[in-house]
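Problem statement: downstream parser choked on a complex file, so we are re-checking the raw output for the zinc ion run. The parser issue turned out to be on our end (a line-ending mismatch), but while we're here, posting the original submission so the record is complete.
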Amino acid sequence: MFGDYHVHCYLSRHGIGEIEEYVESAIFKGLKRIGFSEHIPIPGLDDPTGRMPIEDFDTYINDVEKARQRYKGDIEVLFGLEADFLPAFQDSIQRFIQQYSFDYVIGSVHFIGDWDFSNPAYKDEFVKRGVDQVFTAYYQLVAQAAESGCYDVIGHLDLLTRYGYKPSYDLNPTLTLLLDKIATSGCALDVNSSGMRRRRGVIYPHPAILAKARCRDIPVVLGSDAHRPEDVAAGFNRAMQLLVDAGYSQSCYFRQRSINYEPLMARIAPKAR
Ligand code: ZN
Ligand code: FE
Ligand code: FE
Ligand code: ZN
């Protein structure tokens, strides 16, 4: 059996539900593990709806630890983090990561310069900045994130495709180079099913990228990017099928920043209650 390793909660300030509600949802869906990956607080880049404030970080640690103890025997609870890759803040991000004993850290590119492209409110910037330039800049940032050595997992690679923009040039050489760099870095890929809910049937990264990743033996981690308890493991049957189609037979997770593998064949079978 498998787990869900990309999960947020009310502490994100744009999600709902307590840690324990997510754990119970995971148990109900028959998961063996759940990993929390709350957005990193970044002093100097506070965002009242985008990330938890630093003052809440102890609550996050304590709530995950309490859930770990309380549900021992039913499910394993892992303590993770989704940290942005932001060159201008990278020193403090790295220091923050080293300060705590995370099971794993997901590195996500949400920003190009000071533009949060992941926020639909600012999607007009794609055209203002030029779609081709935006794509080039994005994949460069992802490569830098992988090579930074700060992260175990690359978050939702491909997220910038969410608005349907496409570059005018052939992306294949860029993607080949990027995946070579990710393979060398040792990072795994977050296989993120949030697009199944927000954009019908879409997974990040695109299956064509997963096939390239498989050829390079890049490990994959399943994540729903749930921001509501009922979204734990949502879309995973489809995500697992796409991974099998790409040639994968196992996915992975991290405990104390070491990689472990689990078989992919299982399907979600909610417990009767
Ligand atoms: Zn979030
Ligand atoms: Fe993200
Ligand atoms: Fe997330
Ligand atoms: Zn995410």
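For whoever reads this later: The longest strand covers residues 76-84.
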